[in-house]
Amino acid sequence: MRVLGVDPGLTRCGVGVVEGVAGRPLAMRGVGVVRTPADAELGHRLVAIEQGIEQWLDEHRPEVVAVERVFSQHNVRTVMGTAQASAVAMLCASRRGIPVALHTPSEVKAAVTGSGRADKAQVGAMVTRLLRLDAPPKPADAADALALAICHIWRAPAQSRLQQAVAQNRLQQAVARHAAQTAGATPAPTAPTRNPRATAPTAQKGRTP
Q1: For range 152-172, the mean pLDDT
Q2: Helix H segments across 184-205?
Q3: Catalytic status, residue 7
Q4: How far is residue 89's CA from residue 1's CA, in Å, rounded to a whole number?
Q5: Which is more confident, 111 or 195?
């Protein structure tokens, strides 16, 4: 499986490609950052992010794009920019028919380091170790993008089994409801049958034909 991880951001949008399967050594196929000038108009910055991600999709042909799920209770302005960059990445992938997976920061940290509260230095160190790199990718946005790709590769089998179990459960519930409705249905009324003994003519006593 080849996954493009995207750590969304307006000024620096981290991108990283990891290839492999769960339970086996992973390999980095590319890592970098799509940058936009902070003083440029928002529309131009989003176009630049789109063009950058399109280049990565053209070059690496990923099977899945893993994007960080945007969530924050503080600094609404920063979150808005991150969400806009995230939407651009999702749009680029979906336009090509590439599946998009969303992972929260805590999910990524837990998958890569074993702790959902790990800091960026710990994430970078584990990414370096897991991908057998000489040094942690710089800046941190690039390391986070690789961590997203690693997280998805490791979580994909479990998510697939969970989705299959949910689908099977829904099918069983639908079959059970159908059986209950069929069993509880009122049978259609039938025409009354006539007793042939009650309608057949009876012979009068004492008379012979």
Answers
A1: 69
A2: 196-199
A3: yes
A4: 19
A5: 111
Structure tokens at 90: 């999702």
Which is the catalytic residue, given 59, 63, 68, 119?
Answer: 68
Considering the candidates 19, 50, 59, 141, report the single residue annotated as catalytic: 141
Q: What is the pLDDT at residue 209?
A: 43
Residue 91 φ then ψ, to 5°: -65, -45
- The CA distance from 25 to 19, in Å, is 9
The whole-angstrom separation of Cα 26 and Cα 33 is 21
Task: Calculate the average pLDDT of the chain.
Answer: 87
Work out whether the CA dihedral 168, 172, 173, 178 comes out positive or negative.
positive
* 186 — pLDDT class (breaks 50, 70, 90): low
pLDDT in tens, 124-148: 999 999 999 999 999 999 999 999 9
Which residue, among 21, 17, 24, 15, has the nearest Cα to 3 in the 3D structure?
17
144 is catalytic: no
How crowded is residue 87: how many other Cβ atoms within 10 Å of its Cβ? 15
For residues 101 and 94, give the distance between their C-alpha atoms in angstroms, rounded to a whole number: 11
Read off the amino acid at residue 138.
Answer: K
Q: Quick one: tokens of 98?
A: 């590439």
Choosing from 7, 19, 107, 144, the catalytic residue is 7
